[in-house]
Amino acid sequence: MRLTRYFLPILREAPREAEIVSHRLMLRAGMIRQEAAGIYAWLPLGLRVLNKISAIVREEQNRAGAIELLMPTIQSADLWRESSRYDAYGKEMLRIKDRHDREMLFGPTNEEMITEIFRGSVRSYKDLPLNLYHLQWKFRDEVRPRFGVMRSREFLMKDAYSFDLDQAGARHSYNRMFAAYLRTFDRLGLTAIPMRADTGPIGGDLSHEFIILASTGESEVYCDKSILDLPIPPADTNFEDAAGLQAIFDAYTAPYAATSEMHDAAAYAAVPADRQVSARGIEVGHIFYFGTKYSEPMRAVVAGPDGQERPVHMGSYGIGPSRLAAALIEASHDEAGIVWPDAIAPFNVSLLNLKVGDSGTDGACETLYRALGARGVDVLYDDREERPGAKFATADIIGSPWQVLVGPKGLAEGKVELKRRATGERSLVSVEDAVVRLTA
Fold first, then answer.
1. CB within 8 Å of 305: residues ≥ 6 apart
2. Where in this chain does the record put each Aminoacyl-transfer RNA synthetases class-II family profile domain (predicted)?
């Protein structure tokens, strides 16, 4: 993509209402624009990040055996009355009426709707286990939306819902998602700690939040730092192996780790002092097992091996890609701007032509731009007639993992400069070697 043809509204100064780093940098880097309180437009750069996060989330959900569908944003109030949550959910739910005066709502979550879909199609235990997921925009009318997309009213959510015949099967489904989440966050470049958590309005009696440690976290968390050294489940993890997945779950839940709502001071005190970690944390995922909380009142039943009908056991599993974009910036930035992990950077390479109009720099940049693009590398080519300092600032703030600086002085020696954004490491290489390095 040539920057002269791209929409990238960089701000020199962050708006005063931006309280945390991710909010400031997302606005300054032209990733988002506020349209109303807690409601943001995702501009091209931000949308590229959101799509890359979503792609990794999808890959790991599919790997774990979940099946994607897409549910609507608008739901019938009648469904929520079946579960008794319509009145109980509170003012966070946006309630509306259509032209026929039917009560509707903008979905804050999808337990009721997925249960309705399930009960209309599945009748036998032979069709279980089943895990259905989607990526869909949600709306929760937060009393005080803040911190940009970290706590917004409209947000993108991946929510998966599992259905099993009994508690043992449901526990296996829970462990599947537990392992899938560990893999997902690792691929995104995050160290996420599963912590015992409150189930909140979704309900249930087994719940874990996946937390990344960050000074701007919303709440205090406590853990044994030995959990940070545990191995991530590999790509060839057997998600059919109940015992193997239980072993992963047991290993990660043996060390102490809890959110402030579930904190046990006595248990934490038993952790050796040199392993105690008390810090702020950002929630990046939340998983629940809630048994028959929805299937009983909504009559989501299947015939078991004995022919008797019984309500299915359910769980739900959420990851917010829009929130993750902000969390990644909180975890990876410096004074100059964002430092994206390679896997979700909007562009892999920022190509800087330091003297537009010079035949040598123009020619070298065209060669690099075409060669890298042909090899599947996402390149943002800064071909603007701007001073070099402005180009350096733009490249730094948007955070491409690699910068390629092409100027007359270097080309006189047959070289271009490669800069690694995360470390600041620089090297002079030929145009040909630059292509090799950036596609290795």
1. 125
2. 38-341
CB 148 within 8 A of CB 32: yes
Strand residue runs (E) in 10-112? 32-36, 39-42, 67-68, 74-76, 94-97, 103-106
pTM: 0.94
Give the mean pLDDT of the chain: 95
Report the C-alpha gap between 68 and 432 in whole angstroms: 42
In angstroms, the CA 269 to CA 258 distance is: 13
Cβ–Cβ < 8 Å for 153, 140: yes
Phi, psi of 56 (to 5 degrees): -65, -40
Query: Is residue 54's pLDDT more than 90?
Result: yes
Identify the bridge partners of residue 159 per DSSP, sorted by sequence position.
134, 318
Contact, 329 vs 22, CB < 8 A? yes
* H-type alpha helices, 301-418: 321-331, 359-374, 388-398, 408-411
Angle (CA) 84 87 88, round 5°: 75
Strands ordered across the beta sheet of 349-353:
379-382, 349-353, 402-406, 416-420, 426-429
345 vs 52: CA distance, rounded Å: 8
Assign 409 to helix, strand or coil. helix
> pLDDT tens, 31-53?
999 999 999 999 999 999 999 99
Phi-psi region of 36 (alpha: psi -120 to 50; beta: other; left: phi over 0): beta
In the 3-class helix/strand/coil scheme, how is 232-268 assigned residue by residue? Answer: CCCCCCCCCCHHHHHHHHHHHHCCCEEEHHHCCHHHH
User: Residue for token digits 């733009």?
Assistant: 394
Mean pLDDT of 354-359: 96
pLDDT in tens, 281-292: 999 999 999 999
CA proximity to 129, closest of 184, 166, 103: 166
Q: How far is CA 7 from the centre of its chain?
A: 24
At residue 106, the pLDDT reads 96
- Length of the chain equals 440
pLDDT at 198: 72
Provide the token pair at 330: 């909180």
What's the confidence (pLDDT) of residue 201?
55
Q: What percentage of residues in the chain have a pLDDT greater than 90? A: 91
